[in-house]
Amino acid sequence: MEKQPHLLLWKAVFVLIMIGLGFGIYAGSKSIDYTWRWERIPQYIINTEATTVRSPFDGTATIEKGNKLVVTSDYGDDPLVIKKFDNLLVNNGDLVFEGDPLVEVENWNIGPLTWGLVMTLQLSVVSLVFAVVIGLFAGLARISTNPALRYLSVTYIELIRGTPLLVQIFIFYFFIGTVLDLDRFTAGVAALSVFTGAYIAEIVRSGIQSISPGQMEAARSLGMNYVQAMVNVILPQAFKRTLPPMAGQFINLIKDSSLVSVISITDLTKAGREVVSSTFAPFEVWFAVALMYLVLTGALSWAIQRLEKRLSASD
Amino acid sequence: MTNMTDKSIIQARNIEKIYPNGCHALKNVSLDINRGEVVVIIGPSGSGKSTFLRTLNQLETISDGTIHIDEVSLTDRKTNINKVREEVGMVFQSFNLFPHKTALGNVALSPIKVKKKPRAVAEQEGRELLKKVGLAERMNNYPSHLSGGQQQRVAIARALAMHPKIMLFDEPTSALDPEMVGEVLDVMKSLASDGMTMVVVTHEMGFAREVADRVVFMEEGELVFEESPERFFSSDNPRLQRFLGQVL
Fold this sequence. Notes:
The complex is a heterodimer. Chain A is an alpha+beta fold. Chain A folds into 2 domains: 48-109, CATH 2.40.50; 112-313, MetI-like (MetI-like fold, Orthogonal Bundle). Chain A is built from 10 helices and 9 strands. Chain A has helices spanning 7-31, 42-45, 112-142, 147-161, 165-180, 184-209, 213-221, 226-256, 268-279, 282-311, and strands spanning 46-47, 51-54, 59-64, 68-73, 80-82, 87-88, 95-96, 101-105, 109-110. In chain A, the strands form 3 sheets. Chain A has a 4-stranded antiparallel β-sheet, with no helix packed on it. In chain A, a hairpin with a 3-residue loop joins strand 3 and strand 4 (68-73). Chain A starts with 6 loop residues before the first helix and ends with a helix. Chain B contains 9 helices and 10 strands. Chain B is globular and about 55 Å long. Chain B has helices at residues 49-55, 81-87, 103-113, 119-132, 148-160, 178-193, 205-211, 229-233, 238-247; strands at residues 8-18, 24-34, 38-42, 64-69, 72-73, 88-91, 166-170, 197-201, 214-219, 222-227. Chain B has a single domain, classed as Rossmann fold (3-Layer(aba) Sandwich), CATH 3.40.50.300. Chain B is 36% helix and 25% strand. The longest helix of chain B has 16 residues, at 178-193. Chain A binds chain B through residues 212, 214-215, 217-225, 228, 232-233, 236-237, 240, 313-315, and chain B through 57, 59, 82-83, 85-86, 88-90, 92, 94, 96-102, 109-110, 113-115, 142-144, 155, 158-159, 162. Chain B: Belongs to the ABC transporter superfamily. Chain B: Its main location: membrane. Chain B: This is Amino acid ABC transporter ATP-binding protein, PAAT family. Chain B: InterPro entries: AAA+_ATPase, ABC_ATPase_HisP-typ, ABC_transporter-like_ATP-bd, ABC_transporter-like_CS, MetN_ABC_transporter-like, P-loop_NTPase.
């Protein structure tokens, strides 16, 4: 009889190893005499601190009915009217000087790390759309019978895959960006989508070539032209087959987007660097940044797994 | 022998096919097929019979010769081959159903996309065709959930959905388990009795004897012999005798 593996035992081993790793990190940080200041991090994600509104000029504060604060200027400037606030810091009739606190407004301010996350998300989504379009056409051109299209596609793929993304970003920003007068964001998106498109092209090509030639023949024998056969028969099947490698490529794109911080786009990585310099808490910040990337990539791979499940109905 | 007049819906004259690697697959093959005729092509593997069949809807291009389908020349550059293919249905040895579509989806796809029929109309016609091939119960199954015989019957219904004038069968039962051959041949027989023009490449001698109006024997790229089934199977042509001795 086959020996039953002790599943529970090995799961316990896994948990023990993870605990050991965690302890190792803790012990390591102790040994280098580092003070963890996790409490400094949340304010850079969401800032709930009240902001204080200060008087822009010398004048007199009056509280009018309806809880409205009006500050009349001594020098004839337009009066300052504040209708919504949470804490009043002056009394009716107080004389105020320029810079004096008037009221506190409690609101949720989005911190720089969250702005960075939003920028990374924007970069990734826009680049992804362009990359898929570029990759689809380059992949189709790669298997075309027309030599001009085929060689163009091969040249594109080899050029892009053979040079580092960082160098491409510099070329896109400093050379192409200058020639075509592109802003940072456009140059960043262009570099990322052209880079990822080359990899997607190869995925598309292998996906199409993995479909049996009989499928194309059957579609053509039914009177479909090449484009109809591609769109209705070949690509839907290739799409399903290429989902796993596509997912990997999309995740790579999100991670690669961190490189555009070199052209001063304030993405999550650059935001992290800025926060480090104002908190002096590099360990905490980089762990937090890593976790935020993980949330993005994790959500994407979850979504693609869901899609795969839905498409598996015909298996 | 049939007379080669304007009655022929398929006119293939002096077909030559030489592959780029130098393989001479078809040597001066001529064959005329009349409207409503069932022609069975037999021959050893590698004899060029499948290649010849595939030239009739230009899945295989020809190196020389002429093919006319319903008086439209396939070799004319101005001919829209997609239009011709709408008239010529094809059934493959390996079924080639679209795995991402249900049986009904397979049958309705081309009428919707090529003939621009409204989905409801195409699906209604598809349901009737699937009923005709005995698959009314299996309409919403994906090909992976159908047996080989059922898949091949869906493939026949799919080809019929374009209302072709001619049906080409490329060894339609060769990939089937023996117990499923009958159900496919039955569908083909009923199609023949409906008056469909059919060209069938097969190893099913029983089908040839029973259904064919004419049997053609090919060997090494040449059309060796064509005759009515009675005379064909009693012929004393030595090449044919050798082949029949091997398969029967």
